[in-house]
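thought: fold this chain, then report.
action: predict
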Amino acid sequence: MLLQSINNPDVLNAVILLAPMIVLGALLFVRPAKYFERVGMMLGFLLCVPMILLMNVLAEYLGWWKYAATANSYYNIPIEVILGWACFWGALLPYLFKQNKVLVAFFVALMIDLIYMPYMTGLFVLGEYWLIGEIAVLVTCLLPSLIIYQLTATRKKVLLRGGIQSYIWGTWIVFLIPSLILTYEHKSIFDIFSMNALRVLIFLIGMGSSMLIGYLAVVQLAKVGLGTPIPFDSAQKLVRTGIYQHVANPLQISTALMFICMALLYKSWMMLCPLIALILYTEIFVRWHHSVDIEQRFGEAWFEYRKQVRNWLPKW
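observation:
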C-alpha cells in the first residue's frame, strides 16, 4: 500500500509542489533573507518556470522521459511539477547554498535526481538516454538560476545581471505567455515549425530588431546607470545617453514590438492582450514608480530630461 501511494502520480505531484515550499518557508523563518537575496530568489523562480516547461517538452520529444497523464497538466507536464521544481531549483537551492557554493548546489540537485527519479515510476517513465536530459535540464535551468541569485544577492557584474534578466523576460514573452494564449485559442506555439519559411524569416527579422532595441537599453542601464531593467534592481544614475536620448521607454517599446510580431506570426488577436496590459502597466505603475522613486533621486535632472524625450515616440 505504501509503494502504491508513493507511485501514485497525484501524491508525487503534491509532494514535489509542497515540499520545496514548506522547506523554503521554514528556512526563511529561521534565517530571514535580505532584500537582494529575495530579489535573487524571485528571479531564479521566474527563470525556472518557462525553462523547466520547455525542457520537459523537449525531453518528451527526444524520448528522455515521459510523464504520466494527470488532471493538471500543460503540454503533458504536471503543473505541480513545474512550480515545485521551479521553487526548488530557482529559490530553495540558491538560498540554501548562498555562500557562492554553485557547484555544491549543482551536485546536490544532480544526486537527488539520480537517486529518486528511477523510483518514481508512477510519475514518469525514463528513456534510455535520460541522463543526457538530466544534465541538459540542470545546465539550462538550475545553473542560470544559481548564477542570477549569486549576482543579485552580491550586487556584482551589473551588465551580466541585466542580460540574464532580459533572458528571463524573453522566455516569458517568446514562449510562456504566447503558449498560454495559443492554447486557449486551440493552437500550439510549436506550429512555427510547420509554417512557411519566408513568413518565419520575416518574423525572425522583426523579433531580432525588437530585441536589439531592448539590448541597447539594457547596456545603457548597466554601463551608465549601474542598474538593470527591473525596479527592484534599478539604475543608480540617470541614463540620458544612447537610445535613452531618443525615447524614454525603449524596453517597453521592445516588448510591445515583440508581442506584435508574435500576434502577426500566429494570426492571433488575443496576443495583443499582453500588449494592452503592458501599456496600462507603463502608464499607471511606471508613472507612479517614477513619481515616488526616480523624481526623488534625480530631481531637476529628471524633469529636464523628460522635457526632451517622449515615452513612446522617438525624437531624432
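thought: worth noting. Confidence is low (pLDDT under 50) at residues 1-5.
final: C-alpha cells above.
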